[in-house]
Amino acid sequence: DFEFSKLGHELAVGSGIGELMEDLGNALASGGDEIRMLGGGQPAHIPEVNALWRRRMEEILEEPGSLERVLSNYDPPQGNPEFIKALAELFREQFGWKVTDQHFAVSSGGQTAFFFLFNLLAGDMPDGRRKKILLPLVPEYIGYANQGTCGDLFRAVPPKIEKTGEHEFKYRVDFDQLEVTDDIAAICVSRPTNPTGNVLTDGEIDKLSKLAKKHGIPLIIDNAYGAPFPNIIFTEATPVWDDHIILTLSLSKIGLPGTRTGIVVAHPTIAKAVAEMSSVVGLSNPNIGQAIAKPLIKSGEILRLANEVVQPFYVEKSRLAQEWVKESFGDRFNYYIHRSEGALFLWLWFPGLPITSRELYERLKRRGVLIISGHYFFFGLEDESWPHRHECLRMTFTMDERTVKEGIAAIGEEVAKACSSS
Ligand code: PLP
């Protein structure tokens, strides 16, 4: 037997995100018909989007020296300079933000950017204090949960639950309970939120931003699904950035998850620190995604792709999934769908569910349907007695119609069975 360090235990021995990516990778690799994969954050293969990646690869192959520059060079750890220049221009033009090339750092996917940012800002400080990341609203992205290199990194605040329809609800930040104590290093939210599809309102973001600024700490906004790309947002939401805001983006959800390309927009001190961390951990970043996207960012085509292809595609996917939930669940049991305002998921809540969501996950897995148990998304929250955290699940609606429809039907049957036998 090998002995593992504390950090080893944190990173290498069982995590929700590890389980999820195992399930996801195996389901995709098996190519099998027998698994209904509603678990991961795998974006859809949209034919028009994939055709564009193919065209870009052909262009890279055709242009003399282009392929060799991509495959045979290390980029600087901050990222490809031309890619960054194009990004900075896009953000200045689109949003009027006063950002220079020094405000950017590329990372090996957004996931890695978070590992760097959280451990840069929080954990054991040089003066012996221990700092945490404040999640103003949970459920929040499962991928953050195990990222702390000095153990438990998060403090979370439960949301206000607002019923917005017969079978619909929305989480709101509970500002009355939100307290920024001395040991808070930063505030962090994903917007749109994974797992719920919630989009924090402009008002909520403004309040969080002011609160962070007042305490001299960063507000981290995880924009993996946000504007300007992939812009998988179904409501109105203004993108924001400021000197104290750290915005992260990714090329994954527009359709390039395999390239592992994350982007951090932050004060130059933060951006530089992320670049330094990239060099220590990985020397340099994968550059094929940057090479594919660069001309699309320069020309603005990436905006057309996001707004005219990707966004409408997921609007329809969300609408259909909600329709099938309603058809399939009927009035056999009590349920609510979180208002679907963006991202790739429906978040389902079964008030009074007689089994835990973990048990529901197990039962569904046994019949070949993979979802994510909601309990994983409530990390950082001490109150174990709150039933809500064991009454929810996340299901992805990006897969083909049959998979999603049959998956939803199975969820309905299992919940009905659990409710009737209690
Ligand atoms: N942040 C959120 C909210 C996500 O949902 C994901 C992926 O699902 C990520 C970050 C990380 O994505 P990637 O590392 O592919 O950029």
TrEMBL record:
Listed InterPro entries: Aminotransferase_I/II_large (IPR004839), Class-I_PLP-dep_aminotransf (IPR050859), PyrdxlP-dep_Trfase (IPR015424), PyrdxlP-dep_Trfase_major (IPR015421)
EC top class named in words: transferase
Molecular functions per Gene Ontology: valine-pyruvate transaminase activity
Pfam family, one: Aminotran_1_2
Gene3D superfamilies linked to this entry: Type I PLP-dependent aspartate aminotransferase-like (Major domain) (3.40.640.10)
Cofactor(s), by name: pyridoxal 5'-phosphate
CDD domains: AAT_like (cd00609)
Source organism superkingdom: Bacteria
Keyword line: Aminotransferase, Pyridoxal phosphate, Transferase
EC number(s) on file: 2.6.1.66
Aminotransferase class I/classII large domain mapped to chain residues: 68-411
Protein name: Valine--pyruvate transaminase
Species this protein is from: Haloferula chungangensis
